[in-house]
Specification:
Elements lengths: L8 E10 L2 E11 L4 E5 L6 H8 L7 E6 L2 E3 L4 H6 L2 E4 L11 H5 L6 E2 L6 E2 L1 H14 L16 H14 L4 E5 L7 H16 L3 E6 L2 H7 L2 E6 L2 E7 L5 H8 L3 H13 L1 H18 L22
Parallel strand pairs: 3-10, 3-11, 6-9, 9-10
Antiparallel strand pairs: 1-2, 1-4, 4-5, 7-8, 11-12
The chain binds adenosine-5'-diphosphate and magnesium ion.
Amino acid sequence: MSDPTGPRLEIRGISKYFGSVISLKDISTTVRAGEVTCVLGDNGAGKSTFIKTLAGVHQPDEGQLLMDGAPIRLHGPRDALDRGIATVYQDLAMIPLMAVWRNFVLGSEPTRGWGPFRRFDVATARATARRELAAMGIDIRDPDQPVGTLSGGERQSVAIARAVHLGARVLILDEPTSALGVRQAGMVLRYIVQARERGLGVVFITHNPHHAYPVGDRFLLLKRGRSLGDFARGEIDVAELTRLMAGGAELDALSHELESSGADQSVLRAAQEFEAQVNALGIAEQPDRPVSPAAPTPRAES
Ligand SMILES: Nc1ncnc2c1ncn2[C@@H]1O[C@H](COP(=O)(O)OP(=O)(O)O)[C@@H](O)[C@H]1O
Ligand SMILES: [Mg+2]
C-alpha cells in the first residue's frame, strides 16, 4: 500500500491548540523525497509548533500525518527519529567543547570488541567523520577542533551531514540561516541542496523568502497559525512569496506610500544586491536544472 511515487511525508489538516491559543489551524502540505518543502512565516506564525508536531514533540489535536502513504502517530522525538525524521534545531544538539568528529558520531558511536571488552572505536569514528564530511564537500580544516570554534554556518553544515550519515529520510531544519550573514547562509543553502540531492525530504523553516526560493520545491506560508497557501514552485514566484510574507494587501498600501518618497528603490536595490551575492555563491537555481552540488565549497568566514 505504500506508493513509491507518493509523498514521503504528508501533513493533512493538522491543528494544535494551547488552551485558547490556536497555534496551528488546518495545515496541510507534502514533503517528497529529493525535494525541499519551505515553511515560511513571521514570529508567532506557528513554525516551531509545526516542526515540533513533525518531530514527535507535540501530538496534533486534529488532522493526520502520513509517512509513505500510511497514517502514523509519533509517540515522542525518539519515535520520530526511529522512523527517520531528524530535526536540527537552531540551538543544535552538539557539544561545543567536543571535537567535530566526536560530535559527528554522537549517538551512533562505533564500537569494537565484544561483551565486557566492547569499547568506543575512536579510529573508526574519526575516519567516518572525515569521510562523510568530505563526501558532502564540507571542508573542516581540522576535525579534532572543538565544535565551538566552528562558524555558525559550518556548525549547521556538520549537523546536516550528520543527519544524512545517520540515515535520515526526512530532515527538518529550524531556521538554519536566520542568524547568519550572506556567505554563511549561502553555505548552509548549498548543504540543503546536497541533502535534497541525496534523496532526503527536507523541511526548511525560514522567514526569509530570498533564502527559501533558490532551494525550495514547495512553499507553505503560515500566518498566526493559519495557512496562507501551500504552493508548488511553479505556482509562485519570489515576488509573490515576498508579498504574501510581508502581509499582501498591507504591503501594497505601504508600497504606494513609499513610491511617492522613492524609498522603495533602496529596498529593491538591497534585494537585488542580496540576490547577486547568492548568485555569486553558485546556489541560485537554473529554471530547468537542479543546482549542481559540485561547485567549490565557499571558504568559511571567521
Ligand atoms: N507550549 C506552548 N504553550 C502555549 N502557547 C504556545 C506554546 N508553543 C507555542 N505557543 C504559541 O503558539 C503560537 C505560535 O508559536 P510558534 O510556533 O513558536 O511560532 P514561530 O515559531 O513561527 O515563531 C504563539 O502564539 C505561541 O505563543
Ligand atoms: Mg520559532
